[in-house]
Structures are given as structure tokens and as C-alpha cells.
Amino acid sequence: MEQRQVFPAMRLKGEITVPGDKSISHRSIMLGSLATGTTEVHGFLHGEDNHATLSAFRAMGVEVEELPGGVLKIAGRGLDGLQEPGDVIDCGNSGTTIRLMTGLLSGQSFFSVLTGDRYLRKRPMKRVVTPLSQMGARIWGRGGGDLAPLAIQGGGILPTTYTSPIASAQVKSAVLLAGLYADGETTVHEPHLSRDHSERMLGYFGATLRPFDGGVTLTGRPSLEGRKVEVPGDISSAAFFLVAALISPGSELLIRNVGVNPTRSGIIDILRAMGGDIVLENERELSGEPVADLRVRHSRLRGIEIGGEVVPRAIDEFPVVSVAAALAEGTTTLRDAKELRVKETDRIAAMTSELSKLGATVEGTEDGMVIVGKESLHGGAVVSFGDHRIAMSCAVAALRATGSVTIDDTGCTATSFPTFWSLLDQVRGA
Ligand code: S3P
């Protein structure tokens, strides 16, 4: 198992570009495959999660060519052009792949089976199986239909109105992707707005959607047309460098070309509320998504209360927010974030245990964390639990430790951020 030793740093300096957005990259393959004509994807994230989605579509007969510079050229097969896969589809570690594909496969008139790695096979799937069954899909799984492998006999999808008990883009997207195959309107209500990349990209490819306060309605059987998609940098990857610069005295970084969709930019709001100096420069739009360059300077952070609507807008960033909080003045309280318990690992338990090993004062609660900040952490040995964001958050914490931090099981960073370690070396001038 890969292990890394991370040393404390002082000033982080320079300009970096983080890899493409993971959520948008998944959707570009899915919609490019269901569209007619060619879709070219620039800035695609070549990480393990997105490659799982790519392999799945190749297994269903979609031809995808890789052009120089990592650009993907997808030969769309139209809404009804996918073929029954000859084998079980392995979604690896990717929750987005398995949950969105369960929706999409519910609309196909063939049989398919989805599975994943040992972490994914423990994550709850009922959240998508329930609404999709309501739409007419037949889905079987372990644990009474809650756990992968999932077997799906698609076809006969009916329009529905579904009120999701959780703010989850994976649930919303699974229902909308199945709704592509329903004659009529499919509506999803959610308690807070989750990331809306599916809606934006469906609209960009020509589908009709009506967003409203508390949900969205999609008209079924649209004709989707292949487009050029330019994927912005992933704000969830930029987040590690935002926090790294904020906590390291003398730092200033410019992170170019980052997606700042308001349903994803909760991390900027949270870090600014903590006193972080983050400036958006050169704001523009790329393929229907807002983008900016982020300038971040070292700042004295203070503890805050976090809860409510910002939580789904920053849901993947709480591991690294907990690092910022551990080094802020005063107490940070996170609430309404129970979803963190069912991510790649239980992220409340993971960050509580690992930050404590480095001397932080952290307590896990049922739906969040209470963190009392201090000037610095100490060195030690931590583990990632195979979760990419835990590994990278521990690396950021190590920058402000008094000794080196050894992180066990760091190969998982390849799922979302293959260039993380080289960029970290670059900005610390190593
Ligand atoms: C994602 C949605 C979020 C997020 C995940 C990616 C997506 O999950 O945590 O990393 O691409 O739709 P939930 O829908 O479970 O909140």
C-alpha cells in the first residue's frame, strides 16, 4: 500500500491548474453517449472514477477516442442506441457512476449488473432504487435491494414526481436520467438545492427542463445533440489548495479555471466566513457552467457555525474544512451533515480520529463535528481509510504540523486528483 511522508511547509506560492471537474466529467460521457452526433470533451478528468464511467459506456457499445491532450471524442448513439453489456459493469470506488447509471440503465430495454469495490459495495443504494422502482424499474440488490451488486431489468419507465428526503445530486440525477425515457414530465423535489450539473448539461445538450424553487421538472424523450464540452477545474480539488494557502503564513496562490457553480461554491462562502482572503478573478462561462480564477492569500481564520443550505453546496469539502477549523481561532461547529457518514468512508469518524492523532481538538457528533482550533498540529501517523479526500486533507493538515506526518494508503488520490502530490511539491517549491 502506498505511503507518503509530508513535511511542514511555510510559504506556498505560484499558479496552478487543477484537473477537470469529476461530476461534470461523468455527465459528459453519459450525455455524449445518449446524444446524436459527436461530443468532444476538453478538460476531462482522467481519474479512476471517471475511467470507470468511460469503461461502462464502452462496454455498452459506445466508441470513445482519446485525442492528444486527453480530449475525448464520443460517437453518440442516441437515446436508444446503447447495447446490453456482455459482463458485469465495475463502477470501482465511484458512487456517482453506480447511482447515475442505475437511473440511466433503468431506462434501457436490457439487463445489466453494476458492482464496485469493497467500499462502494457498503454504500446505500436504496436512495436511488426506491424512486426508480416507483418509476417502473425492476432492480435487485443485496441487503434487500440496498447494496451492490445491483441487477437491473430496465424499460417501461413512467413519469413521476419524487420528493427526495435528502439533498443529493446523485439521487436527483438518477431520477432525471431515468426520466429521459418516460413519456411526460418527471419532477424531483429536494430539501435544499444539490449540485445542478445534470440539469445544466441536459439543457446544454437540448433537453427541456424547468427549475423551480425546491426542485426541477424534465420533459421526457428529448432529442439530445452532441456538443463540445469544456470541463472546468474541479472546485473540490481546488479546495485542498485553498485551505493549504490559507493556513500557511506568507502564502499566495492563483488557481486558474475553477468551476464556481453556486451549487458547488459553498467552500468559498465557508472559508470567507472564517476570514479567508479568496478573490474571484476573470469570471466567465464555459459550456453552461460559471468559471473563475481563484486568488487566495494566507489569512487568520476564525471558527464559525456551519449548517443548513450551504452543506450540500460543500458536501465533499468537509474533510478539508475540518483541517481549516483545527487551525482557526475558536470553535467551529458543523451540523446537518449526516450524509458525511455514508461517503467513500464515514468522513466524520475518519477526520475526527485522524486529526486527533495530530493533536487537534475534535469531537464527532451524529450529524457533524465540533472543532476547537489551535496554532499548530504535531507530526504523527495517519490513515486514509482508502478515501481520496481523507488522504489529501491529512496532507494539508501536515503543512501546519510541527513534525512530519506519515499517511498510509495514499494511492486512492488517483480516484479524483492524480496530480495532487506533484502540484503540492510545485507550490511548496520542492
Ligand atoms: C456527486 C454528488 C454528491 C457528491 C459526489 C458527487 C455527483 O453526492 O458527494 O462526490 O456528481 O452527483 P450525493 O449526491 O450523495 O450528495
Secondary-structure blueprint of this entry?
Blueprint: E1 3-6, E2 13-17, H1 22-34, E3 38-42, H2 48-59, E4 63-66, E5 72-75, E6 89-90, H3 95-106, E7 111-115, H4 126-134, E8 138-141, H5 142-145, E9 147-153, E10 161-163, H6 169-179, E11 185-189, H7 197-204, E12 209-212, E13 215-219, E14 228-230, H8 235-247, E15 252-259, H9 266-273, E16 277-286, E17 289-297, E18 305-306, H10 310-313, H11 318-326, E19 331-334, H12 347-357, E20 361-365, E21 368-372, E22 380-383, H13 388-398, E23 405-408, H14 420-427
Parallel strand pairs: 2-15, 3-14, 6-7, 10-11, 18-19, 22-23
Antiparallel strand pairs: 1-23, 3-5, 4-5, 7-9, 8-9, 11-13, 12-13, 15-17, 16-17, 19-21, 20-21
Helix pairs in contact: 1-2, 1-7, 3-6, 4-6, 8-11, 8-13, 11-12, 11-13
Bound molecules: shikimate-3-phosphate.
Class from helix and strand fractions? alpha/beta
Main beta sheet: strand number and arrangement? 4 strands, mixed
Q: How many DSSP E strands?
A: 23
Secondary-structure arrangement, i.e. CATH architecture of the largest domain: Alpha-beta prism
- Principal-axis shape equals globular
Question: What is the helix fraction of residues, given as a range?
Answer: 25-40%
- Top-tier CATH class of the largest domain: Alpha Beta
- Give me the CATH superfamily of the largest domain: Enolpyruvate transferase domain
Strand content: 25-35%
